[in-house]
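HUMAN: Quick job: go over this next protein and say how the chain folds.
***
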Amino acid sequence: MFRFLVFTFLFFVGSFLFAQAYKINPILEDTSLFKTEHIVVQNISIVGNRITKPNIITRELLFKIGDTIASNELSTQLEQSKKNLLNTSLFNFAKIEWALVSNDKIHIIIFVTERWYTFPLPIFEIDDNNFNTWWETKDFSRINYGFHLVRNNFRGRKEKLSLTAQFGFTERFRLRYNIPYINKNQKGGLSFSFSYNRRDEIAYTSQNNERLQFKSQTNDAIKNYSAGIGYNFRKEIFNTHSFGLEYDQNQIIDSVRILNPNYLGENRLKSNYLTLYYYYTIDKRDSKNYPLSGEYFRFNIRKTGLGILKDNVDLTNVKVQLKKYWQLQDRLFFASSLQGEYALNNNQPYLLRNGLGYSSSYGIRAYELYVIDGQNIGLGKAQIKYQIVKPREVDVKFIGYDKISKFHYAFYLGLFTDFAFVEDNIGFQQNRLANDLQYSTGIGLDFITYYDLVIRTEFSINKFGESGLFLHFVAPI
């Protein structure tokens, strides 16, 4: 493990030094327009917010009415404020302009194009680790169908209300309500959730770094009830503290328990447990959807099993994420990331295990067809990419509705390398990819467009010489 930590440290330091050498400075405002070194924001106007409340928009600005700004910092503050607005996912487009009122006063005008906020969307999706795993079997029984009813920007206050009714491979009924601000100073918010899930087929263990499936012909293989409440505290623009309490009840049938007595831990058919969590996030990325510059840090600690319920679950996980993005030249970008996850105890029920490959956003590329179970995880990624098509705005005027007719798109070609180390102290069956350094490299083409859509097509090869063409729908780093 020590060798792995040293290797990851040197990797990240090398990535930082390489990119830092090509770091460029932001373009500053032409100060000849101003008579003084400092200017005062006399007024702020907002155009285009038919639904969004003005205070939701001004919350994302780095300035307010009456603030004094150094003349040579105005451009930087306006640009960052624009990025903050776009990162709310409330607007397809945002633009900030200003006008001189007097020698030392300006009037700032904010133009926004609101998104479509109500989505009665049908569900038709594959229930698998990723699209590439499903493509190996093309098992159409693993299809989910139903509908999402999502209301973003509910009441114009950035609130989100969602209802899910899903059938098929996984039956799910879920209600979520997120209130970002519950007080006048817009620093604290609440979230609530409840869900019911059931399946007649589950992965009961892994062997040879592949999931083994069991399908019940009579009863639900697993049922789950969960509920949660969370509190977010966002004192500043970029830093957020999150606290939460969750309740879970899981129940399996006897056949699953026989196949894996540790599925719920200690040969149990039913488990009830509470989880207490804390997140601290610093997010200074230019875009949460597809970042090209900035940095991201998150510290997360979760304590599952609080000794209140008689569940015998006692699990503590600590996770750290660090991501950095640089613009090297006009169209050239570099990104690197490190993630580490550590379990303070190894008595993990299989249902709550750590591992790589169980989601498309948490895995090593070229290993899409594998899972790597373990307790302690280190994952590093680096990518350099070229913007072959700069972001372009398109207006399909015959549609006549700017929430849909106006959109943007861009293409990026990239070279990447990933590496990972998963430490397995339990000994999953023939878990050959654990306790050894894994790595891969490849080339990819990314397509980015509005409503946070990302489509990645990648050709990659791993340390064993296995290669393939893989498809993903989230940003690479």
Summary: Residues 2-20 form the longest helix (19 residues). The mean pLDDT is 85. The first strand starts at residue 38 and ends at 47. The two ends are 24 Å apart (CA to CA).
